[in-house]
Design a protein that fits this description.
By secondary structure, the protein is α/β, with parallel strands linked by helices. It has two domains: about 220 residues, Alpha-Beta Complex (Aspartate Aminotransferase, domain 1); about 260 residues, Type I PLP-dependent aspartate aminotransferase-like (Major domain) (Aspartate Aminotransferase, domain 2, 3-Layer(aba) Sandwich), CATH 3.40.640. It contains 15 helices and 17 strands. Strand 2 and strand 3 form a beta hairpin. Helix 5 runs parallel beside helix 11, helix 9 packs parallel to helix 10 and helix 14 crosses helix 15. Its cofactor is pyridoxal 5'-phosphate.
Length: about 500
Amino acid sequence: MVPAAHEAAGILRRQSARESAARTYARALPIVPVRARGMTIEGADGRRYLDCLSGAGTLALGHNHPVVLESIRTVLDSGAPLHVLDLATPVKDAFTTELFRTLPPALADRARIQFCGPAGTDAVEAALKLARTATGREGLLAFTGAYHGMTAGALEASGGARDVRVARLPYPQDYRCPFGIGGARGAELAARWTENLLDDTKSGVPAPAAMILEPVQGEGGVLPAPDAWLRRMREITAARGIPLIADEVQTGVGRTGAFWAVEHSGIVPDILVLSKAIGGSLPLAVVVYRDDLDVWPPGAHAGTFRGNQLAMAAGAATLAYVRENRLADRAAVLGSRMLAGLRSLAADHPCIGEVRGLGLMLGVELVDPGEPGPGAGESGAAARVRPGPQQHALPQQQALPLPHPQHSLPQQRGHQKQPQPQPHTQSHDLPDTRPHPAAPELAVAVQRECLRRGLIVELGGRHSSVVRLLPPLTITDEQATAVLDRLADALAAAERSHRPAADGRLPSDRP
């Protein structure tokens, strides 16, 4: 029974009164979903929404896809047990077989799998524990802007943590490059930083148990790692006996235009962390790793709900459907088309600092188009005329090739030349450029205006100023056009509400 609109308002009031102050999505999206199919959610008030949140990337096939529902009904109707801890079952065997079928062959041929607790953060914890057990070491290498979950160990490896066991490394990006140059040279410097940290006996960083990275930082603001940089990270870790953990909790199952995001670069990690879409909308998390790392004793990592039979059935159906229908290829094609639409949108809106993404994992960074703020990076016209990699080669080191076109797009603003150094100032060959400051309040306004127009989006990035689009892989051409149209309208409305008048006041401040 669908509640009436006034009953839905009561549900929202009771949620606010009863639930934790830590609740998140409910604050920005005050709706009461009652029905859903594909990309469409219907609220209790009868309004329909295009869902570009997709359960934070969990719903690869959208809501209530027929193959997912049928797989669940089959298990329920069979009389099979729903709770079996880690016992072997036909459902688990079918899921594992389908998952291994999709893995990079070099990993699948000698892989082991550990079923963890039901969330991605549990799988991250298992991966860290496994690496520490296998190497006998404690420290970790992780990256600025990372997000790996909310449990203690996962938080230690995430970007905002402060833990002496974790060495924080620069993650390459263009608009806010920590070295102020972006592109191939910025990625090259990030790689060299990592090498130097590991090889310098006085760096204070002992040999680590593992390096953990996301092929695309999602919560960090939709930052795709350059393929060549990922290959360098694989070379650096392999040469030093450091297990490489790839966190594909959000990027996996076709999201980025390849079944697994590591396939873009061709690297094979030692440990792969998987959750979200692999459960077909239900809780499921696993760690897949090289068999020579399988040295932990029985019970070293367990979990009461690691045998979720319904999730395994839904997950196997989802994996097979994505594979058989080549939805990763579809994500690549449609993602490129949507990026082109966002590029066009950026041309008319100075508040868009950068557009970036890979496949159907898209982000629009919103900025204050006034004076440049603190930070650095090269983009815009400067990026378009940047010399080729040979001209940027650093001494005695081949520079990285330019990133994939989807990794670095010309829709970047805010970089203005600063005054040239005085004659007595030591010069350097790095560009003196700065991006515009992030605009988190504008991003909140855009999200709110999107909801008013029937579009659900997420915010992310270091400053929560990146509008994120994570549509299901089953999104149609018509729905993709509608998403861009609604986002364009929302952006224009949010800009009007945040544009200062001649007296310097925002519309909301004026009588």
